[in-house]
């Protein structure tokens, strides 16, 4: 048997071993997760959707919402006001925002992501960060990636132009919380876990500012 073939078999064996190890360490995360923040009652009212349906053949909407559903109608209404809006790129941006905001929360420094947080969300996140600091707790976290991203809901108010889109995320990370003496009090620094969140982003369509704000978490 040639040396090249032996090396190939060894590498294949290592790859299989690593895959099995990764599967074995997946779990359900508990610990210092971002607090759930509900949108104010006045914003949670069921939004009236303008007349009209999603254009037949709009694959961008059909890829993420059931045709004819309230979510599809809301997305179509957003596109009528802002034709450049597309669901696929939005979800890609939401995924990036999720990763960036989640890790900023874990690190305890919201300065870089503050412009993307609605005031109630920023206050809730900061409150947990301050509480950790007062207790002498420190979170060590490594983000491994977002495993799932999907549309959970979409609403549009034609009167105000306010659009709200809720997105489901499944993230995977390694996180552990240590006390002032360095003892692990939450999580496991050697194991990864999955975190499931549904975040709601809002923006007034048709405005120059393209940024969506995180207005609720759950």
Automatic annotation (TrEMBL):
NCBIfam families: Tim44_TimA_adap
Residue ranges occupied by any Tim44-like domain in the UniProt entry: 71-218
SUPFAM superfamilies, per database record: NTF2-like
Naturally occurring in which organism (per UniProt): Paracoccus alcaliphilus
Domain of life (superkingdom): Bacteria
Name assigned to this protein: Predicted lipid-binding transport protein, Tim44 family
Database matches in Gene3D superfamilies: 3.10.450.240
Membrane-crossing segments per the record: none
Record InterPro entries: NTF2-like_dom_sf, Tim44-like_dom, UCP031890_Tim44-rel
High-level lineage: Bacteria, Pseudomonadati, Pseudomonadota, Alphaproteobacteria, Rhodobacterales
Chain segments annotated as coiled-coil in the UniProt record: none
């Amino acid at each position: 048997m040639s040396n090249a073939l032996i090396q190939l078999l060894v590498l294949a064996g290592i790859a299989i071993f690593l895959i099995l190890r990764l599967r074995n360490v997946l779990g359900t995360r508990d610990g210092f997760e971002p607090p759930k923040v509900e949108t104010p009652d006045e914003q949670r009212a069921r939004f009236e959707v303008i007349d009209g349906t999603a254009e037949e053949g709009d694959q961008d909407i059909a890829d993420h919402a059931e045709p004819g559903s309230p979510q599809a109608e809301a997305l179509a209404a957003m596109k009528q006001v802002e034709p450049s809006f597309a669901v696929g790129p939005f979800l890609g941006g939401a995924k990036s925002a999720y990763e960036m905001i989640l890790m900023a929360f874990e690190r305890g420094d919201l300065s870089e992501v503050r412009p993307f947080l609605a005031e109630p969300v920023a206050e809730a996140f900061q409150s947990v960060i301050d509480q950790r600091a007062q207790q002498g707790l420190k979170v060590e976290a490594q983000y491994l990636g977002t495993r799932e991203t999907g549309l959970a809901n979409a609403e549009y108010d034609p009167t105000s132009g306010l659009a709200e889109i809720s997105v489901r995320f499944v993230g995977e990370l390694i996180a552990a919380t240590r006390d002032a003496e360095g003892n692990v009090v939450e999580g496991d620094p050697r194991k990864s876990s999955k975190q499931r969140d549904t975040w709601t982003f809002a923006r007034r369509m048709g405005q120059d500012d393209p940024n969506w704000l995180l207005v609720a978490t759950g």
